[in-house]
Design brief:
- A hairpin with a 4-residue loop joins strand 4 (about 60-65) and strand 5 (about 70).
- The two termini are about 15 Å apart.
- The chain is an alpha+beta fold.
- Helix 3 crosses helix 6, helix 4 packs across helix 5 and helix 5 crosses helix 6 (about 135-145).
- It has helices spanning about 5-10, 40-45, 75-90, 95-100, 105-115, 135-145; strands at about 20, 25, 30-35, 60-65, 70, 155.
- The strands form two sheets. A four-stranded antiparallel β-sheet has the order 1-2-3-6, with no helix packed on it. Strands 4-5 form a two-stranded antiparallel ribbon.
Length: about 170
């Protein structure tokens, strides 16, 4: 497609709104992130806890069919904390929360191990520690460390190399 054809096409088809996935791109208000290696879904979806799309999280702007997409990384981190707080209100242990978060992968023990790596713990955390006995922010931070996120390609939405549906004219 020639440049003039692309300009005409972009005037007919409006750019995708923030929170929309267009091919290999996730659209945000001013940028687009490429869904490709080495980037992880935690990074390109601003979802450091790899939270599924089904819940109604504050500041969730969309999903990719499976995972929630948040406006900012900070919004995604706040959603992780809110999910941990929900499990704490249910009276759950790290193991119980972990079994819901990642069935069959011993997630509660992994989070306990990560929490014990912190020097300022008042006591040793195990998978059977009740969430009400620990600082929820530490649990959320351990989840975010576990789920991680490797950065990838992020472009301004005015970049001419982006597909027309992603790019702002």
């Amino acid at each position: 497609m020639s440049e003039s054809d692309q300009n005409e096409y972009s005037q007919i088809v409006p750019p995708a709104p923030a929170g929309t996935v267009v091919g290999e791109w996730v659209c945000y208000e001013k940028t687009a992130k490429k869904r490709a290696s080495p980037a992880t879904k935690a990074w390109w979806s601003n979802n450091p806890g790899n939270l599924v799309k089904s819940a109604d999280y504050p500041n969730k702007i969309g999903d990719d069919g499976t995972w929630a997409i948040f406006a900012t990384y900070e919004d995604g981190a706040e959603a992780v904390l809110l999910k941990v707080a929900y499990h704490e209100r249910q009276g759950q242990t790290l193991r119980q929360m972990g079994d819901i978060w990642c069935e069959g992968c011993n997630y509660g023990a992994t989070i306990a191990r990560l929490m014990n790596e912190d020097d300022d713990n008042e006591f040793t955390v195990t998978a059977d520690t009740k969430l009400s006995d620990v600082l929820l922010r530490k649990v959320a931070d351990a989840i975010i460390r576990q789920e991680g996120g490797r950065e990838g390609v992020e472009l301004d939405r005015s970049d001419s190399s982006l597909p027309a549906r992603v790019r702002f004219p």
